Amino acid sequence: MAGYPQNPSGYNYGAPPPSQQYYSAPYGVAPPPYGQHQQLPYTHVASPYGAPSPSPSYGAPSSSPFAALLPSTFPPGTDPNVIACFQMADLDGSGAIDDNELQRSLSAYNQSFSIRTVRLLMYLFTNTNTRKIGPKEFTQVFYSLQNWRGNFEKFDRDRSGRIDASELREALLSLGFSVSPFVLDLLVLKFDKTGGMNKAIEYDHFIECCLIVKGLTEKFKEKDTTYSGYATFSYEAFMLTVLPLLIA
């Protein structure tokens, strides 16, 4: 993203870099013949949404999605500009900023983000729906947006500022997800906010779309232990899987 502070560590915060190659088959493709099936090495997705495995500073990852977020600090080597942005957004000096404050802070970098996209980004790095983040999570959000921008521009080949259905399919495949044409059409219909004749998805809604597909797929894969494309959910487990993404 133009104007964003650079990531000094090179760590993959959220979206994979646009140059990253994937050698495992995308999830959703037909399984291999019987007797040849084996677990695919999805090494590029370590935990739901592609976030690093939760640590104590992320809150209580295995309890309620509404668990309280514990205090955090800036990672070593954080760009001073990122720290300054957080401090400007944290008007009350509480050490945490809410969704509206984060939206204003991100929008200062010449990119408008819907409040829903902002909330999904917050959920990505906290695994809770508290709608507050601390310095560590704020830093991760900033650096993850560099990768999301790179991915978007890679597949927006006509530089229209929008991703159409075929471009979205390629983008999802690059992230490791293979969806059917019917699901692809539904995604474009859902996330197209342009109101034009040609259905396409703009940048912030592209992030939202990818986060939801990624989140739902990762939750499904937790139950699909044989990578067969089928899983069994109780009603309670299904609701707890879907609802946090819908109300983020």
Tell me what you see in this structure.
The protein is mainly α and 248 residues long. The chain has one domain (54-70, 77-246): Orthogonal Bundle (Recoverin, domain 1). It is 43% helix and 3% strand. It has 8 helices and 4 strands. A two-stranded antiparallel ribbon has the order 1-2. Helix 3 (115-126) packs across helix 4 (135-155). The longest helix is centred in the middle third of the chain and has 21 residues, at 135-155. It starts with 79 loop residues before the first helix and ends with a helix. The model is unreliable at 20-24 and 31-63 (pLDDT under 50).
- The name of the CATH topology is Recoverin, domain 1
Secondary structure tally: strands: 4
Number of domains: 1
Structural class: mainly alpha
The coarse silhouette is globular
**Estimated helix fraction:** 40-55%
Q: How would you sum up the major sheet? A: 2 strands, antiparallel
> Average pLDDT value?
76
Radius of gyration: 18 Å
Q: Which architecture would the CATH scheme give at its second level?
A: Orthogonal Bundle
Q: Return the CATH class.
A: Mainly Alpha
The number of helical segments is: 8
Distance between the termini: 24 Å
